[in-house]
Amino acid sequence: MLDCEGIKSVRQTIVYTAAGTAPELPETVTAEFSNGTVKPVSVIWDMIHPSDYSKAGSFSVIGVINGTAIMPKASITVTEGSGPLLSISVISDTHVDTGTSSGNGKRFKNALLDLKEINPKAEALCVVGDMTDHGNDDEYDEFMKILASVEHPKAYFVIGNHDIRWHDGGYEETYPRFLTKTKMPSGHYDEIIKGYHFIFLSTDKDLKDQANISDDQLNWLSAKLAEGAEPNKPIFVFLHQSLANTSVGSYPSDGYGFSGYPDGVVQDSQLRSLLAKYPQVIFLTGHTHAVLDHPKSTIFASGFWCVNTATTYSTLPSNGIGPDNGSQGLCLDIYSDKVLIKGRDFAKKEWPANGQWSIPFQVENSK
């Protein structure tokens, strides 16, 4: 029997299976020992219920290594048919800074490493604002250095309030910095990814916590939403700030707009009215740091879908639900008839049990 004393860590196990087929978990996991050696060790996994793999989604399985308190983890992804047409990863609020004692950058890198393992076929990485803590050159440089250190799909960025506020030069200073560092074409822009429309919005003023969406940007958005829109095909829209009273973290009970300064979007009603014309819109926002494992992380509000993207930096519980000081994000699997939104806990390397949603889209029968 292999001596398991001195195990420092155990690498997570990644398993894929088709819906309705029980996943085959390995009899061993790879353990890293404190003396530097790497060896396989035997593991006993928890039982898996057939309902866990009856349809597309992801879930976690915990194991035990006899004689130790170590609990290995397996990430199981269940696919339907030939798999999703498109997969993307979404993170927000990394708050990278250059403080010597800060762990923000480490959490960001840990999230990237985890996504590389559990979502390797992702074709886009969307970062929904507050990449930096203060919007300084050195923080952007550190962010991009960390991003470049881990293999990832093409990245798309949104301006967050932390990326542009509190600078003597105002928006005229911070907006060009965002463009230079991220190489994005504009603060607001769009992209077609494998036939799906992705629209990225941004504040055009350096407000402390709110987003200001100009009339020009709203008119641009109106035209873009209509461009090639199909009622049974999702449109993905990204903005750092949530609309008030939509997904978790944006309610008065969460302190949204009632913590001594306003949050949200100055043009809340105008933006809400535009998006409501398209029930197929999936509106993804960060800013609140609210946990993913909450019943209202993804909801159909105001006539379209509102989705909380959480934070890799430090989650905040809402109404006592979810972990404080966690690190979370999303993986989206897009099928012809649905979008699976899967919350991921990067710190625990787990799929939260209450952190997945399926948004249905009717498939039109060909005549």
Can you give the helix content as a percent range? 10-25%
Total helices: the number is: 6
User: Unreliable segments (pLDDT under 50, ≥5 consecutive)?
Assistant: none
Largest sheet: 6 strands, mixed
What is the strand tally?
A: 19
User: What's the alpha carbon Rg, rounded to whole Å?
Assistant: 21 Å
Please state the structural category. Answer: alpha/beta
The span between the termini is 63 Å
Strand order of the largest sheet: 10-9-8-17-18-19
What does the average pLDDT come to?
A: 93
Strand and helix order: EEEEEEEEHEHEHHEEHEHEEEEEE
| Gross morphology | globular
Instruction: Report the portion of residues in β strands.
Output: 25-35%
Short description:
By secondary structure, this protein is α/β, with parallel strands linked by helices. Helix content is about 15%, strand content about 25%.
Write a structural description.
It is globular and about 65 Å long. The relative contact order is 0.13. The strands form four sheets. Strands 10-9-8-17-18-19 form a six-stranded mixed β-sheet, with no helix packed on it. It is 17% helix and 27% strand. The chain starts with 6 loop residues before the first strand and ends in a 7-residue tail after the last strand. By secondary structure, the chain is an alpha/beta fold.
